[in-house]
């Protein structure tokens, strides 16, 4: 089964509908709601086992909502913007939580936040809003790597066998995810500039 683009139907072109209440959008909202639950479990309850379960569920919904949207023609303009926002919010909030808990170093959080901060500034300058760019393949792979690496890292802190294996595996996924994060950010940055210049040229032409 395809992991990226799963559920796509070659006989049916993908159309982003003006829909709000769809199953994929509901799953995206649930992913948002998983963030405060994870923070509570780690920082207040120190229940790392349950926190791993929450991360696994959150990561699963990221794939499931995309599959349902493509398979059952439930892709929407809202979902195209909301889904990557949920991914970014989850990854950053989880990273902040783990940094406060001492599971990761603060440099990891900085490595996640700096590219996003640059993209946010560029988006505000050119669009005053979300740039509404399609998610790249590198971006999807980056997100998948980080969503797999993070629960593995939390697992490595539990009093269970094979913690050294989980630790090495976690940083393998996280290292590759961070590399993909910077590559995706570089590509998105130039895509923002190109789209912004095209819109400005079109506006000047109409003026």
Describe this structure in words.
By secondary structure, this protein is mostly helical. Helix content is 75%, strand content 0%. The protein contains six helices and no strands. The chain has helices at residues 23-44, 48-71, 77-100, 106-127, 137-155, 163-206. Helix 4 packs parallel to helix 6. The protein is globular. It starts with 22 loop residues before the first helix and ends with a helix. The mean pLDDT is 85.
Summarize the structure.
The protein has helices at 23-44, 48-71, 77-100, 106-127, 137-155, 163-206.
Task: Show the helix and strand layout.
Elements (H helix, E strand, L loop, with lengths): L22 H22 L3 H24 L5 H24 L5 H22 L9 H19 L7 H44 L1
Helix pairs in contact: 1-2, 1-3, 2-5, 3-4, 3-5, 4-6, 5-6
Q: Report the sheet-strand fraction.
A: under 5%
The stretches of 5 or more residues where confidence is low (pLDDT under 50) are none
How does the helix and strand content classify structurally?
mainly alpha
Shape: globular
Question: Which characteristics define this entry?
Answer:
mainly alpha; 207 residues; globular
């Amino acid at each position: 089964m395809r992991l990226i683009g799963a559920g796509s139907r070659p006989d049916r072109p993908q159309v982003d509908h003006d829909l709000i209440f769809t199953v994929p959008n509901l799953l995206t909202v649930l992913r948002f709601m998983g963030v405060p639950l994870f923070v509570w479990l780690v920082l207040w309850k120190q229940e790392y086992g349950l926190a791993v379960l929450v991360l696994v569920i959150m990561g699963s919904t990221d794939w499931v909502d995309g599959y349902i949207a493509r398979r059952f023609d439930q892709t929407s303009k809202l979902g195209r913007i909301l889904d990557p926002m949920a991914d970014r919010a989850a990854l950053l909030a989880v990273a902040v939580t783990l940094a406060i808990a001492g599971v990761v170093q603060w440099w990891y959080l900085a490595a996640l936040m700096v590219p996003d901060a640059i993209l946010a500034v560029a988006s505000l300058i050119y669009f005053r809003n979300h740039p509404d760019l399609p998610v790249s393949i590198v971006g999807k792979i980056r997100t998948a790597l980080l969503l797999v690496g993070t629960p593995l890292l939390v697992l490595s802190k539990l009093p269970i066998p094979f913690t050294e294996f989980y630790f090495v595996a976690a940083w393998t996924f996280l290292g590759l995810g961070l590399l993909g994060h910077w590559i995706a950010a570089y590509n998105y940055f130039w895509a923002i500039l190109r789209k912004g210049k095209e819109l400005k040229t079109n506006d000047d032409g109409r003026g």
